[in-house]
Each structure stands twice: as structure tokens, then as C-alpha cells.
Amino acid sequence: MQKNISVIISTYNSPEWLKKVIWGYNTQTYRNFEMVIADDGSRQETIDMIDELRKEVFYPIIHVWHEDNGFQKSQILNKAILACTTDYIMMSDGDCIPRPDFVEQHIKFREEGYFLSGGYHKLPMDLSHKISKEDIYSDKCFDVSWLKKNGMKSSFKNHKIDAYGVKSSVLNALTPTNPSWNGHNASGWKSDILKINGFDERMQYGGQDRELGERLVNLGVKPKQIRYSTTCLHLDHKRGYATKESIEKNQNIRKETRSSKRPWTDFGIVKK
């Protein structure tokens, strides 16, 4: 049966986290989706783990891999976009466990002329390790009281975990956070993403997702805030690729994107 949405998951040598994410998608209330893993050159351990979990999950997994040549996330995401077999794409990361209604909410809110901007809730490292397969399959890991007992601090942001219905709609309207294309939780029409030529492959760690969203806005696609309607648990990790030089380079590219109001990048899927 033809799938209705493609879920792109980016990863790089983090099989423990990716396994938990794959389990999370096996709990989804909306089931007519495919997963496309954008793998920036992981070692054999990750490849073997994906092959093993294919036998367990109900959804198909397309594994897009290229050789490890440093941080090339934008390149592998562009390859994953081309590998998607549906006309609607949701993107998240290999360290973000989705709430069971995650895909369902993206399907519910998708609309022509818009892209969706969702949220995440970051967990401390100890709790990230503690969450088990059983905790994911039982939905215990989205129980705020259980999370707090296991090391999550009290915060207003905890509402992102258990906001549903009217509560989530009110919080979406009140949040001061501007909607943007967030690599951990965003979705849009494949045709719109192709019209802007995908990700700018000059972009290094930090901001390549936001830059793609800025070019979608330049195209005329409007962002829709669903920060409290669909959420995921962000497992903690080191950020070894973040350097002052890469961040400065990315900021300059984004500044030029905003000032020029250009939707297309010459450094994306189609090379000139």
C-alpha cells in the first residue's frame, strides 16, 4: 500500500539512541508511513541494528547511507529527500523519541501552502540512558510524574510533554517562540522542498534546518506553530561538530538568505 508520509530520521554513530527512536515510531497511532534514515556514515554496528529492527517494526525502513567524510548532514538529508516515496515529508533526529501521536498530529495539521513547526523536550543524560524499550512501548516515558521521579526537573516546558487538545492549541497560540523549520520536529510538502533545492550543503553543524525554513518562507510557504501539539523527547548527547568557525559560516549564509529573500540555493540537491 502506498504510504502517506515519509519520516526522515538523521543519525551518525548513535545506535543506542537510534534504537529507542525506532521503537518510538513502532508505537505510533497513525501507521501509514515509511521511515527514511539519513545516515551520515555510521559504522557497521548501526547498519546491523537497523537490519535487525526491520524484523520487529510494522513500518518499512529505507536506509540511506554514504561514507563518513566529516559532517555532511545537509548532503545526506538531500539524498534522503530524494529517497522518499511520498509527497509529504516529516523530519526528526535519531535522538528524538516521538510521542505516540507524533505522526498523527503532523497528518492532522498539514495544509497546502504551509510547513509545520513542532517542539521537543530535552532530557538529562542519565535519564536518556535510563529509558528502556519497555518504557517506550508502555508510554511511561511520556508520563511527567515518572520522568520527574527519574531526574527531570520541574519546568513550564514540561507542558510540551502532556499537552493535548484545547490545552495544546492555547499554548501554541500563546508561545513567544516563532515557528521555524526545526530539524527535530518539522514537516512540509516534498514539492515545496524541491522547489528551493533542499538543504544548502555548505551549511555545517547548527542552523541548516532553520536556513531551509527561511527559504521556504521566501518561496511563500507559511510556517504553522504546533509546538505543543506534537512533541518528542530529545535524548542528551555531545555536540562535537559545533565550532566557532562553522557557526559563523552558517550565520553568514542565513543572513544572506534573509536579506536576498532568495528561495533557491545553488548548493543543494541540483548542482550547477
Overview of the molecule:
With about 270 residues, the protein is of the alpha/beta class. It has one domain (about 5-260): Spore Coat Polysaccharide Biosynthesis Protein SpsA, Chain A (Alpha-Beta Complex), CATH 3.90.550. Helix content is about 40%, strand content about 15%. It is built from twelve helices and ten strands. It has helices at about 15-25, 45-55, 75-85, 100-110, 125-130, 135, 145-150, 160, 165-175, 190-195, 210-220, 245-260, and strands spanning about 5-10, 35-40, 60-65, 90-95, 95-100, 115, 120, 185-190, 220-225, 230-235. The strands form two sheets. Strands 3-2-1-4-8-6-9 form a seven-stranded mixed β-sheet, with helices on both faces. Helix 1 (about 15-25) runs parallel beside helix 2. The mean pLDDT is about 95.
